[in-house]
Amino acid sequence: MADYVDLTHEFRDGMPGFRLQNEDGSHTEFTAEIQPFLTHEQTRPKFDGRASFEITEMNFQTSIGTYLDAPGHRFPEARDISELDLSELIADGVVVNARERDPYEAVDETVLPCDVDLSGKAVLFEFGWDSHWGSDQYREYPYISESVIDRLVAADVSVVGVDTINIDDDRNPDRPAHTTLLKEDIFIVENLRGLKTLRNRQFRFHAIPIKAAEAVAMPVRAFAEMT
């Protein structure tokens, strides 16, 4: 039987998400609302009291939880989630140890392995920031530098993932990682967890969203299949 490692944060009612500052200084909070649309008690009469079902209703912004960005997230005419092929969302994975960084510290290309061919691979940066999930500290995080971004593009990777809330420095409105990677059809997965267990191990990375047309980002069940 295959061995799997779950790399996904629990998707739940009231979960933490982005906090975007508005022009007036207020903030827009991203979160999820999950509640029964129909309860067991409400559906039981529909089945003559012999069975009951809960129908769940969810309301959320698609850039929340452990999620994948399609190119259309950054570029209006680019592909959306439904246009991504399954073969593009499953790849051999490599974990990059980028721990022991301070909030808003950029990591340079020296963290990248020099003896590994990254072509076609999912490159996952382990900052260890998943330990801060749900806290204010999670909102201030390290990130990858533009030199790392350029190396990843030159290496022709397929996916780049991080265990932080954003692959970019949220103080930089240019968003170089989103701009450069998505332009090259290199997908981004944010808010990963549990990457430490994958260090120096061989695995296939899976990040599969629902096939949602006209959605440019979507929560995924991200996991590693050990090989």
Helix/strand/pairing category: mainly beta
Radius of gyration: 19 Å
Query: Mean pLDDT, as a whole number?
Result: 97
What would you call the shape? Answer: globular
Please report the distance between the alpha carbons of the first and last residues.
11 Å
Uncertain spans, ≥5 residues at pLDDT below 50? Answer: none
Count, helices = 3
Could you give the count of β-strands?
A: 15
Largest sheet: 9 strands, mixed
Residues in β-strands, percent: 25-35%
As laid out across the biggest beta sheet, the strand order is 1-15-13-7-9-11-12-6-14
Question: Could you spell the SSE succession in H and E letters?
Answer: EEEEHEEEEEEHEHEEEE
Helical content class: under 10%
Describe the model.
α2 (146-155) runs parallel beside α3. The relative contact order is 0.23. The protein is 10% helix and 29% strand. It has 227 residues and is mainly β. The radius of gyration is 19 Å and the shape is globular. β2 and β3 form a beta hairpin. The chain has helices spanning 40-43, 146-155, 176-183, and strands at 4-6, 19-21, 27-29, 32-38, 55-60, 67-69, 90-97, 106-107, 122-126, 143-144, 159-162, 187-190, 203-208, 217-219, 221-226. The strands form four sheets. The protein has a nine-stranded mixed beta sheet, covered by helices on one side. Strands 2-3 form a two-stranded antiparallel sheet. It has a two-stranded antiparallel ribbon with strand order 4-5.
